[in-house]
Amino acid sequence: MRFPLYSSPHGIQENHVTRLMAQVLLALVPGIIASWWFFGWGVLIQIAIATLTAVGAEIAIIRMRKRDALPVIKDLSAVVTAVLFALAIPPFLPWWMTVAGVLFGIIIVKQLYGGLGYNPFNPAMAAYVFLLISFPVEMTRWNAPLELVTADPGLLASLSIIFTSVMPEGLSWDAITMATPLDEMRTRLEMGEMIYEIREIPGWGDFGGIGREQVAFWFMVGGIFMLWRKVISWHIPLSMIAAMFILSSATWLAEPDVNPVPVFHIIGGGFMLGAFFIATDPVSAATTKKGQIIYGALIGILIYIIRNWGGYPDAVAFAVLLMNMAAPTIDYYTQPKVYGQAEEEDEQKKVTSDEN
Amino acid sequence: MSSQDDLDKLLTKLHNFHGGLHLPEHKQESLQHPIADAGLPQQLVIPLRQHIGRAAKATVKAGDKVLKGERIAEAEGAISAPVHAPTSGTVKAIEVHAIPHPAALPDTCIVIEPDGNDQWTEKPAAILDYLSASPDILLQRIHNSGIVGMGGAAFPSHAKLLYGLKRNLHTLIINGAECEPYITCDDILMQERADDIVTGIEIILHLLGLERCLIGIEDNKPDAIAAMQQAIKVTSLKRTRVIEIPTIYPSGGEKQLIQLMTGEEVPSDGLPADIGMVCHNVGTMAAVRDAVLDGRPLISRIVTISGEGISEPRNLHALIGTPISHLIQAAGGYTDKARQLVYGGPMMGISLPDDQVPLTKGGNCVLALSENEAPDPEKARACIRCGKCADVCPVKLLPQQLYWYSHAKDFDKVQDYNLFDCIECGCCTHVCPSNIQLVHYFRFAKTEIWKQEEEKRKADHARRRHEARTARLERIAAERKSRLRKKKEDLEQKKPAAGKADAGDPKKAAIEAAMKRVADKKKAAQEKQQ
Ligand code: SF4
Ligand code: SF4
């Protein structure tokens, strides 16, 4: 009887990329439902456009390389990228911009670098920044939470806005869009208003904007699910949240009139989505545990800095991309102490101190 | 670490090692029956290299009659072990035969055809008063009995003890962890022969001049723990303790076991003896006892036969050299689920191409695994840097970085990331979601680096030889030159002596010299013509 030869270990392998990615997608579901509830059909339409584009683009480029596309598609990483990207953009963004963004992310940022595992930058965030720079107006035109507007564009109207850029009868951009809380806070603070004044205007919930704070909450729930399933570890999200909390608490305690409560920053903009789903993208993040804490904390700090002093109201994408660049260096300097090497170092120290 | 009462502190306070895995145990399957005898096969194939170090040298030749326990190969060098005939019979051949080898490479073996009488040679006398015997005598007996580590690595025991004796030891560590799934040979040995193991421990403690001994057993073996505790009670061993360690793979790795029980780390490029400890397996202790008290060399061992591909998984007492096929028959043969044959445990064992290889001294387990238990590995994907491998690595390496640089064949970088600290436990491969055979890459990188070093050594050697040759030639040339120069100088010294006489007239001297040169030339020309 002949048996096949394999290298040890010989058991079942516990994890699988596809399963990991599927769990990420599952963890996104509560946040997606909340986004749909508060911001309408545009959210789901964007997800559909982005996913189809991403999968199509990936198949095309792998076919071009004359390789079998199915195993690559099956890892679901393109779908995760597409969904994260779709959740980061305004729901009524014209369809072709979404397509352009996804193509940029999948083809240039991911596949041209060699595909999943070789991309130094997070494709969803790179695509977001690419669009933000190319189409600043459209990329910052957010529709208001449905609770705050009288006109609710249904599924058909949403489709028509996205695909034809034509407002259906009786609707106007003014009627459905509104500055985001982060934007609002920024412009009004710049105009010299005080926090308590700003919070008088309609659209504010308990900590941030109505709708947005709920969506952030449900993304956090998904994040906790991933922590529980060990899809991600706590290091990046926790250090990112902690850094942001400490910074914003410090300024808030010093000058509460011109600084929003710390929670505002944490649930504002894409912070929660970023902390649990984007900064934790393993491919482009730091990989050592110590490194991940530094990486997460620096992203938190960068977001705070850019939000307060930079040119853009939200900064998750920029902060993540900047830190993507730093990740290899962070990894290099945060290697864990290998078993049996502590004594050696101590001895070396002893030797050198003896010499001194 | 030398205070008297630290032992019981150790009992209450266990330490941890980083990472590790909780694996499905699969231990019960082979524990359904007591140890059975595997019986005498038709042929025994005894490899000369069954241990780490140099192969033994055969002392018999084809056609020789040998008796059971007779030495058939002697140790070569300091790290080696002799080999003995497992039964009486005739040496059929000394030839290259398939053996359990990671790369399925064959090696020289002594093939014995048993005569069925199982007749013993004259055994060395029992050392009954082992507690007053000199360490040298005990060491000699252990060496002559061909004892090697029986937990798998098969390092010659006397060499380990000898190294330990030269160090400042304080603790004997006995490894009864048996952390790999399926394997139960140590478990069942502890259950059935605890007294003998403890006698072996007494011998080794005396040999090393030690009192303190820690026996590590995973807490999934309550019967073995109880048996060992009972066996210690009836001895005079005051400072020997059984320590129940958590069931987490690889708790039975020498370095991990030490860390678990004492919290200390063996230096990365050192041995346990460097921190005052020496570690032996429970099976080795029983073998030591047999050698000292019965004069019985290491010619048999207990081996677990298990997996869904085996009809009656169980533990067998088998002669070294028994073909695996015979062992599998003794365990009821294959089921039709058998798809993969593994020598050793599922995590670190080696894959066998067929069952025509012999059992060796370090062989603790043979597994016939089903599709279910060991599916064909999936095609590897790119590393997504998820860090799961680093989370479980007991050595705290970064397997993802090791992989990256092994893949890129950047062997300097891979050593910067401490490749050689990898114990090849397989935890990283087990959890990798991209199904990368990480350990395989690490083994590849290690072999490549060794090869390069070997080549470099050879090249260095060649270069040195070349340099030596050039130097010799240059020296000869230089010597010749200097001889010539000397001659010339001698000549010239004579000349000035002649010249000095008419030093007063340099012109005259010059003319004379010129005339002489012309005359010389003429003379030379005439000589040439002749
Ligand atoms: S577990 Fe596999 S995929 Fe994850 S970092 Fe390690 S090698 Fe890469
Ligand atoms: S095989 Fe090596 S790198 Fe992998 S977990 Fe074990 S020690 Fe770490």
Give a topology summary.
The complex is a heterodimer of chains A (356) and B (530).
Chain A: H1 17-39, H2 42-64, H3 69-74, H4 77-88, H5 95-110, H6 123-134, H7 136-139, H8 155-164, H9 173-176, H10 181-190, H11 195-198, H12 212-228, H13 235-254, H14 262-267, H15 271-278, H16 289-309, H17 316-333, H18 342-355
Helix pairs in contact in A: 1-4, 1-12, 2-4, 2-5, 4-5, 4-6, 5-6, 6-17, 12-15, 13-15, 13-16, 16-17
Chain B: H1 6-12, E1 36-37, E2 44-47, E3 57-58, E4 65-66, E5 71-74, E6 83-84, E7 89-97, E8 107-114, H2 135-144, H3 157-165, E9 171-176, H4 185-208, E10 212-218, H5 222-233, E11 240-245, H6 254-262, E12 277-281, H7 282-294, E13 300-306, E14 314-319, H8 324-330, E15 338-343, E16 350-352, E17 365-370, H9 388-392, H10 399-407, H11 411-416, H12 427-431, H13 438-501, H14 506-529
Parallel strand pairs in B: 1-14, 9-10, 9-12, 10-11, 13-17
Antiparallel strand pairs in B: 2-8, 3-5, 4-7, 5-6, 7-8, 13-14, 15-16, 15-17
Helix pairs in contact in B: 2-3, 2-4, 4-5, 4-7, 10-13
Residues 383-389, 399-400, 403, 431-434, 436, 438 of chain B line the site of one iron/sulfur cluster.
GO cellular component, one term (chain A): plasma membrane
Keywords (chain A): Cell inner membrane, Cell membrane, Electron transport, Flavoprotein, FMN, Membrane, Phosphoprotein, Translocase, Transmembrane, Transmembrane helix, Transport
Main location (chain A): membrane
